[in-house]
Amino acid sequence: QITLKESGPTLLKPTQTLTLTCSFSGFSLKTNGVGVGWLRQSPGKAPEWLALIYWDDDKRYTPSLQTRLTISKDTSKNQVVLRMTDVEPADTATYYCAHRGKYPILNAYYHVFDHWGQGTLVTVSS
Amino acid sequence: DIQMTQSPSSLSASVGDRVTITCRASQTITSYLNWFQQKPGSAPKLLIYATSTLQDGVPSRFAGGGSGTDFTLTINGLQPADFATYYCQQTYRTPQTFGQGTKLEIK
C-alpha cells in the first residue's frame, strides 16, 4: 500500500525559505521508473505541477519557479524534500507530494501521479 | 507551456444523468491525458490515465475518450459520490499542466 505524507511549516513570512518533506512508504525510490513529484493548489484553483525527482536522481522543475526550487531525495529515509526560496503571499497554497506510477501500455510504459499525500497548507503572510 | 481548457467550468445535473466534460489542449498531446476527481478538503484522485484507461477501483460508469487535442470525460448514471470537481491533466510535456476544473453540482 502506497502512502505519502507532507510535513513542514504552516506559516512563513515573505522572503523566507520553505522546506517541505514528503515521507512515503509502500515503494522505493531506487526502483527503475519511479518518481516523486510536488504539486500545489491555491484555494479555488487547479493543481500546479512544481517539481519531480526520479529514481536515478534526475530532476525536473516548472520553468516559472525553477530558480527558486530545489528537490532532493533521501532513499534511506524514504523522503523527498522540496525547498522554495524567497516565498511571497502568492505561494500560499496546499502543497502535495505524489507518487509517479508506471503502467504498461502497448509496448511502453505510461507514467502518472497515481497516489497523493493529504496535502499541507502553507500560508505566506507578513 | 501547454494550456488545457475545460468546459464547462460548472455543471448541474441529477442523480442518474449522463454528463460529459470536455478538455482541449493548446497543442497535440497524443494520448497523454489524465482525469482526476477532487472533493473538498481532499487530494485529487486519479480516475483515468492515458485518455481512456480506468485506474483500479474506479467504477465503469466513468469513461474517457479523445486524442490529439480534444478529450472527454463521460459519467453514465451519476451517483451521489460523483458530485465533485474534475480536472484534466496533460503529461505529454513538462511542465505537466491541468485544466481549470469542472465543478459538478447536484441540480
Major sheet details of chain A: 7 strands, mixed
Structural class of chain B: mainly beta
> Cα-atom Rg of chain B, whole angstroms?
13 Å
Secondary structure tally: strands of chain A: 11
Largest interface: A-B, 22 and 24 residues
- Count of helical segments of chain B? 0
Structural class of chain A: mainly beta
* Distance, first to last CA of chain B: 36 Å
The proportion of strand residues of chain A reads: over 45%
Which overall shape of chain A is indicated by the principal axes computed on the Cα atoms?
A: globular
Instruction: Tell me the series of helices and strands of chain A, N- to C-terminal.
Output: EEEEEEEEEEE
List segments of chain A where confidence is low: pLDDT < 50 over at least 5 consecutive residues.
none
Q: Give the topology string of chain B: H per helix, E per strand.
A: EEEEEEEEEEE
* Share of helical residues of chain B: under 10%
Residue-averaged pLDDT of chain B: 97
Question: Uncertain segments of chain B of ≥5 residues (pLDDT<50)?
Answer: none
Task: Describe this entry's structure for a reader.
The complex is a heterodimer of chains A (126) and B (107). Chain A contains no helices and 11 strands. Chain A has 126 residues and is mainly β. The mean pLDDT of chain A is 96. Chain B is an all-beta fold and 107 residues long. The termini of chain B are far apart. Classes of the chains: A mainly beta (126), B mainly beta (107). Chain A binds chain B through residues 45-49, 52, 60, 62-64, 96, 103, 105, 110-114, 116-119, and chain B through 1, 32, 34, 36, 42-46, 49-50, 53, 55, 87, 89, 91, 94-101.
